[in-house]
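Archive transcription. Copying these from loose printouts into the bound notebook so they stop getting lost. Printout 1 of 2:
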Amino acid sequence: MQLIKLKLQNFRCFKQKELVLDAPVILIEGDNGSGKTSVLEALHYICYLRSFRTHLPRELVNFDTDNFFIQAEFYESDESKSELAVGFHDKKRSVKLNKSAVGSYKELIDHFRVITLSEDDLDLIKGSPEGRRSYIDQFIFLHEPEILSKLRVYRNILNNRNALLQKKSSQDMYRLWTEQLWDKTVDIQRMRVEHLAMLEQEMAGLCEEFFGSEYSIALQYYPKKKIHASLDSFLGEYTDLYDDEHRMYRSLFGAHLDDFVILFQHKKSKAYASRGQQKLLALLFKIAQIKILKKTKGSCIFLLDDFMTDFDSKRLEVFIKLLQSLDCQLIFTSPVHNSNLSHFLRGSCRIISM
């Protein structure tokens, strides 16, 4: 999969912008505020139909307008040429692939896939459980899009159960909604654990191949409350759950409260990893994701937003070699002209100055 051309209209700082991106490696250089990140944001948006910087589409609209338009021409994994267009007007979004309306996320992901890495992804290592849950759910979505509907059903059950806990309720009603939440939690946890194991295996392989025995990585899923083989055994262990939940007026177990721990060098990375180690881990997560995605869906496009410029030359050389081994299109941004990054990429990339 490789981009050919990107057209932007009324998107962020661009009134009209067209970029030719038909090269395996692209480096977009420019001062802060020149629109480098907005280019990657547009590519991310047409894949996921949401930005990695805001949840509000209206914030993507250029000043003094009420609409935006993004169009990408690209080669798919089978080398066929396609066109993807996303428009936003009158608070409504339209999505068309080869001029036909796209009916589902699955249809979109089957044709166009990007993985994005930015400084915000360090929250995966050092941030809250919510960010890690969001990451693993998005990773699952790329392989099993039906997780979106499962999460929607789960959230609806959770909201109804929480509403029940706000008032006096019978044991029968409590049991009914607890069973539904428990069932959906078991299903979502199963998917998360399976995909986390895939990531751990791939990341361990990357460490062994490129760093030898220098690093060790392990990923462990941590449910808020241990889910047993049956609901009865679960309730048998947590005998105070009914009283505790009615006192707190909310559900105290479920997939919405779970987390996973990243062990780096046998220590919890959230507490002990340096900034350089956090960036290494974030990079390895995304690379592992790309390698797994390539096996199951096909190649993708890797967007790296000002993520590589503060690595030292020795590390950067190793990382560039690792990235080039992915055999996917790489698009970097950098605020620094003639940086170490451009030095290592020179001769093998197209440089675009903003």
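Printout 2 of 2:
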Amino acid sequence: MRNKKSKVLQFISLSLIVLLLGGCTLSGQSGTYPSKNLNGVIPWGAGGGTDLVSRTVVTGAQEALGKNIVMTNRTGASGTIGQQYVYDQKADGYTLLFNTGDGSLYPVLGLSDLTYKEFTPIYIFARIAGVVVVSKDSPYNSIDDLLEEAKANPNTIKMGVSGVGGLPWVASIMLNNLFDTSFSPVTFDGDGPLITALMGNQIDVTVLSAGSAMQYLQQGDFKGLAVISNDQIEALPDVPALGALKPEAQSMLQTTGPWFGVFVKKETPEDVVAKLTEAFKAGYENETFQEFLKTNGYTPLGLTGDAAWDHINAWQSQQAWLIHDAGQSQASPEEFDIPRPAQ
């Protein structure tokens, strides 16, 4: 009888241990994360700024994690398809979102109810200015040439954009607002398809991230008319800063330019967030990644935690109100508690 009771107690004890271990594993508290490869989702096309930054930084992060991060481009609907996909997955740290500031503007643009409030930022890697580019055979040799034509003949110049809220789209609104111009937008999924379209003369002009435009400018395939920034890019000494050419634009240009980061779904366990933060810190500090940023004209940021949120919120405020004041929003930023930036 005593042996039988002893066996029953042993069975109960083992069962409790299994349940406890199982519970820890499910909650992400076991310390074994990651136990399998991760999935990285890029909501923009291959070859664009988000794609290049994300695929470069994961090399060092993978080494730190000891697992692969399998990268996939899930494009469409101005990045909302990829962001929605990540949101629909479990909050377990195995599906990562690599995106830009666009993801904070979707409600204002009427594209999606999702914002970064539904995610946790792991790391904000860098930001970059856009460059107004035309093909090498374009009749436009300066930003003034382009603006004068767009003003004299509204809606005749085909401006390639990467969806509502993307860098080229916002840049076109900024130019219209500042210089009373009007472009005819043609939409593509990210910098990669925009480059192909400009090479094939399907569009007349676009705005690419400096990193995406760099090799084409250096090879002479494109002409750079202006950097959408107050500061010139060291790696592009022949392309003037718009703020230097047009002082009236300087205030609006203070916080422009896309930034790039990695996120997980909100409610991902804290220990998983901490491990991912440590891994992407290693990826960010990796010598190859830092050289990539320098060579391609990116400004390193290296933000996480509260600093990442401060950057996201400041950028969202400036961009959301710029879009709204230009009459291009579907709803006022006030509806989503987005404060107007200080003047």
